[in-house]
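Look at one record.

>
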Amino acid sequence: MEETDVLGRHDLGDGIFEVQLGRAPVNALSADFLMQFAAEIESISKDETVRAIILTSPFKVFSAGLDLKQAKDFDIAQQHAVVRGLNEAFLALYACPKPVVASVGGAAIAGGLFFVLASDRRVAMSKRSSFGLAEVRVGADFPVGPLEIAKATLDSDTQRRLMLTGQPIGPIAARNAGFIDIIAEDHEDLVAYSLSEARKLAELPSEAYASVKLQLRGETIARIRAAIAAGGNEPEGGWFNSQTRDAMQGMIDQG
């Protein structure tokens, strides 16, 4: 059944728009949610009234990644659907010509971290935010879109630390690793800093911004699109391997 009311777009004035991730309670990623997000970003990318975008979540968790209780029972068609969603959603965000600020007030884990990595500026709240790529712990590898974005936005040591351990890090470590720009002490500061960053980016010449962004990201975007065209949305035999379901159940049992 198609999900509705999981995304909100709000005009904050001066060409700045908030895109709110609203799939309660933790913005768990489903194929439908991801494809709706891709469509929203593609739509807002074409809107000439939009000068900058702020990604937000109203929940204590920014995005927890896949709902493992559902994912562990996915058949091959469902695995393909969520791989397609992950590829298309984060490709759309990474390729968005508008400035995007991620305003992170909670944990961004596994697929949920790519809302952050695919954005241009990243602001995190010190008291609640954490960041991780837990795929290896749940017995899954990375679809091509998220994989290429991780390789393009994280240095090799941070890739090793996050992707080969599956363990999260806090906001200070994330800032030291270079993928968080600003740490806010509380929610009020998070909102203020995020809006300030969006305003700064919105004041830049929009055509030049889009062009420079494409110069920086174009090769990665091209690799993702080529891999999708070659079947990257439908990995042969599905996404899961022989250990994935047991690993997911183990994570569920750990709470």
